[in-house]
Design brief:
The structure holds 2 protein chains of 2 kinds.
Chain A lengths: L7 H34 L5 H13 L2 H12 L4 H8 L9 H27 L2 H8 L4 H12 L1 H16 L3 H6 L10 H10 L3 H32 L2
Helix pairs in contact in A: 1-5, 1-8, 2-5, 5-8, 6-7, 8-11, 10-11
Chain B lengths: L1 H16 L2 E7 L3 H15 L2 E7 L1 H9 L6 E3 L4 H8 L9 E6 L1 E5 L10 H5 L5 E4 L5 H12 L3 H4 L3 E4 L2 H9 L5 E5 H4 E2 L2 E2 L3 E4 L8 E7 L7 H9 L3 H9 L9
Parallel strand pairs in B: 1-2, 1-3, 6-7, 6-8
Antiparallel strand pairs in B: 3-12, 4-12, 5-8, 5-11, 9-10
Helix pairs in contact in B: 2-11
The chains are: A mainly alpha, B alpha/beta.
């Protein structure tokens, strides 16, 4: 059986990409859900400003975003100064640095679907829960969250897919270190630049097939959920 | 009205003769090229359009039909390959500059004349340009190999996708040291800031930077004028002031 022309480095890059996408999605769901809840419920005058701030990464070109993250993570930037002060050194060129970049980059893709799902619930179910004696936190977990499941699924799908495809930000702050910051997108880029088209084609095809499979699975999951909960 | 017509008549010859040349320039030559382009425009009336990037990147773009007319590479291989590939004019490649590598840090006093800090490994990261794509990166790896420091430094390497990004890593402080082009940190005979070790010429294959006239530039007076201008005394003086070795006019 012929071996696939995917080298060890390619597998390393694939593994790293999946690790990054999974970690980013997980952390984003934890961060985005309370943020989306606040944005959907609050009457505060800060609502519009915070909403705009969350949407900002959508508007900035990834390489620009990556550049500013590089500066902020460096010794002159505030994150860099903090990490150095607490003995962590600098986060640039590390998996943690990529994680921070990915979280910022995909933040709007996580917050917005969840926020819209919360808003779609409306006031009624929560008012009913209150009249039945549920405290706000209880109501959140037992009423709001289950009703917002489609939004959570969408957020998961989008964050994951967006991180797998992330290129500009990684290019700026990664440093291309094998096993640490060399992900599939920069790997393919490197192959194309060096005119190693065979490897590039195989990696790109693999990425497309995998992403398609994941998205298909998650979309099917969502459809099944919509059928169960009309 | 007569003055207006006279003015128009005065400018017609210049408009008729002035052409524009699109030039692809290796990133490391960004600063000197901007100065040369300005002088060229002043002295000849032709216009220039400059695009900067990694030699490997620009080469791939040219092979795929990018509308450049003159290519200033950071090596001698890319121009030669374009000639054999039929995309460049035979006999047009010439060395416009010889590059110098420098180990640089934005911290003054960190690097001395023997690059002790590199041998001690007493730093966080060493930035180099991707050796597969940028000749300066390949030269940096040669130097590290020649100094016998590859095992020590391999884990500290971070790669910039081109020499410009490599400098960004070092000047932002994210990498304490980096191998960059001397021209990037040199101004009128000295380092602009920080500290550095100018790598002796014998430690790596010469960084002959060749220019080549692409076939799309034939018939363009501005393109041919630029190729000539790069070998003029004025251009050579500019090139040298930026930390390159420029050869005598050929």
């Amino acid at each position: 059986m012929p071996t696939l022309p995917i080298s060890f480095e390619a597998w390393q890059a694939i593994g790293l990409t999946l690790q990054l996408a999974t970690a980013t999605t997980f952390i984003l769901l934890l961060v985005a859900t309370p943020l989306a809840w606040w944005l959907s419920q609050t009457q505060s005058k800060w609502r519009a400003a915070v909403g705009a701030l969350v949407t900002l990464p959508l508007v900035l070109p990834p390489t620009v975003l990556g550049f500013y993250i590089l500066v902020v993570l460096g010794p002159d930037g505030w994150i860099g100064m903090v990490t150095q002060a607490i003995g962590l050194g600098l986060l640039s060129f590390s998996f943690s640095g990529l994680l921070i970049g990915s979280i910022i980059f995909s933040l709007p893709f996580a917050v917005q679907p969840i926020q819209y799902a919360f808003e779609a619930i409306g006031r009624r179910p929560l008012e009913v829960a209150a009249t039945l004696g549920a405290k706000p936190l209880d109501a959140f977990f037992s009423v709001a969250l289950p009703l917002a499941k489609p939004g959570l699924l969408t957020a998961t799908v989008l964050s994951f897919a967006h991180t797998v495809g992330e290129f500009g930000v990684v290019l700026m702050i990664g440093g291309n270190i094998p096993g640490q910051t060399r992900v599939v997108s920069t790997q393919i880029f490197g192959h194309v630049e060096a005119m190693e088209y065979t490897q590039a084609h195989w990696l790109a095809a693999g990425m497309v097939v995998f992403s398609f499979g994941v998205l298909l699975f998650l979309t099917r999951l969502k459809k099944r959920h919509d059928r169960v909960m009309p | 009205m007569r003055t207006f017509l006279a003015l128009v008549a005065y400018f017609i010859p210049i408009i008729a003769l002035a052409h524009e040349v699109t030039v692809a320039v290796a990133s490391n030559f960004t600063a000197p090229m901007k100065v040369i382009a300005k002088a060229f425009e002043n002295d000849t009336g032709h216009k220039t359009k400059l695009a900067f990037g990694a030699t490997g990147q620009l080469y791939a773009q040219i092979k795929n039909g990018a509308p450049f007319q003159v290519f200033l590479a950071a090596d001698d291989k890319a121009p030669a390959q374009l000639v054999t590939g039929g995309l460049a004019v035979v006999d047009s490649p010439f060395t416009y500059a010889s590059g110098r590598l420098v180990l640089w840090s934005r911290t003054p006093g960190l690097i001395n004349e023997t690059a002790e800090v590199l041998k001690r490994g007493d730093f966080n990261k060493l930035a180099v340009a991707n050796p597969k794509l940028a000749p300066y990166g390949a030269a940096a790896m040669e130097v590290i190999e020649k100094m016998g420091l590859t095992p020590l430094l391999l884990s500290k390497l971070v790669e910039g996708s081109n020499i410009g990004q490599t400098l960004q890593f070092v000047s932002s402080g994210n990498a304490q040291l980096g191998f960059v082009a001397l021209s990037q940190v040199f101004d009128n005979g000295r380092l602009k800031e920080g500290s550095g070790w100018i790598v002796p010429l014998g430690m790596h294959k010469p960084l002959q930077q060749n220019a080549v006239l692409l076939k799309t530039g034939l018939q363009n007076p501005a393109a041919e004028a630029l190729m000539t201008y790069l070998r003029s005394n004025k251009a050579l003086a500019i090139i040298q002031s930026f930390g390159y070795d420029a050869l005598a006019p050929q």
